[in-house]
Amino acid sequence: MSAVIQPGKVPGTATAPGETSGARLAVRRFLRNRLAVVGLAFVVLFFLFCFIGPLVYSTDQTHTLLDQVNQSPSGAHWLGTDAVGHDELGRLMYGGKVSLIVGLAAGVLATVIGTLWGATAGYAGGWIDAFMMRVVDAGIAIPALFILLVVSAITTPGLSGLVVILGLVSWLVPSRLVRAETLTLKNRDYVLTLRAIGGTHGRAILRHILPNSVSTVIVAATFQIADAILLVAYVSYLGLGVQPPQTDWGGMLSAGLTAAYSGYWWLILPPGLAIIVVVWAFNAIGDGLRDAFDVRGRG
Questions:
Q1: Are 87 and 59 spatial neighbours (Cβ–Cβ below 8 Å)?
Q2: Rounded to whole angstroms, how far apart are CA atoms 218 and 216?
Q3: Residue 80 near residue 268 (C-beta atoms within 8 A)
Q4: Widest CA span of the chain, in angstroms?
Q5: Measured between alpha carbons, how far is 6 from 4 in angstroms, rounded to an integer?
Q6: Global pTM?
Q7: Rounded distance, CA 261 to CA 265, Å?
Q8: Which of 103, 189, 208, 281 would be a feasible disulfide site paired with 229, CB 3.0-4.6 Å?
Q9: What confidence tens digit (pLDDT) does each residue in 35-85 have?
Q10: Handedness of CA 205, 207, 212, 214 (dihedral sign)
């Protein structure tokens, strides 16, 4: 029975005692990055706040309560109420759930599309690579926000539609990152060996190229989630995002902007701070992951 040779392993050699695996080393490097750890803590707290919070702090976010309009923060309403009587703290949880779900789903979708596109282009090479990357260059030249505004104005998408649109306009940058990684990996010995023994191109991509690009993919996904949350906020702020009675943090900003001029600061400050903190947190995590997976920085 022939032995199976794993990529990067030399036959006849054993793993040295105490040798730390790449994943374990990456975790250690990530945990040494204080900003990344703080960002991760904020993301966890916001997910608990938005998904578990409504179970503890139950509010009515559907019906109009005209007798409780624009009340200032108090013991009954910790962050006050908005122009239709909705509790602002409960609204912040509800809107945050929508923002996080759409941002997470759109970021993952964009990363998946970009990963497959970039891996295919980099592995194929030649005119196929040139054509596919010219498509990417043309897409990057068009601002994603402009495309979002046009499509949203035409179709008025729901949550699932917004996720698809965001994914289709945000996959370009991950595709370039994965392509660059693929150009290096496709010339590795284990990929050349697979091709020499008759392995298919699809198997080479799915079994070797993509698994060895996982660090690049994870980092790209983190930044894509942050960008998607911002894009959702932009579109909703302009009134073209999720439609009432649903809302997100961008929609809350849009609804509270006029009232803020009347001194109702609690309608705009909490959602604005939530967007800033969550986007910063995901970017900090992305920076930490990028440093953790950086082989050149390991020692």
A1: yes
A2: 6
A3: no
A4: 80
A5: 6
A6: 0.83
A7: 8
A8: 103
A9: 999 999 999 999 999 999 999 998 888 888 878 888 888 888 888 888 888
A10: positive
Q: What are the start-end ranges of the H helices in 142-268?
A: 144-155, 159-170, 172-185, 189-196, 201-204, 214-237, 249-260
Query: Residue 186: CB partners within 8 Å, gap ≥ 6?
Result: 122, 123, 125, 204, 209
Give φ, ψ of 7 to 5 degrees.
Answer: -55, 130
Tokens representing residue 225 in the block: 């989630």
Please list, in sequence order, all residues whose beta carbon lies within 8 angstroms of the beta carbon of residue 137, skipping any fewer than 6 positions away. none
**How long is the chain?**
299
Structure tokens at 159: 């949550």
Task: Report the mean per-residue pLDDT for the chain.
Answer: 82
Per-residue pLDDT reduced to its tens digit, 129-164: 999 999 999 888 888 878 877 877 777 777 888 888
Measured distance CA(141)–CA(152) in Å, rounded: 20
How many Cβ atoms are within 10 Å of 190's Cβ, its own excluded? 16
Q: Are 99 and 47 in contact (CB under 8 A)?
A: no
200: three-class secondary structure by DSSP: coil
From first CA to last CA, the distance across the chain in angstroms is 38
In which residue are the tokens 């990996």 written? Answer: 185
Using DSSP's 3-state secondary structure scheme, residue 217 falls into helix
Q: Which amino acid is at 41?
A: A
CA atoms within 13 A on the CB side of 123: 25
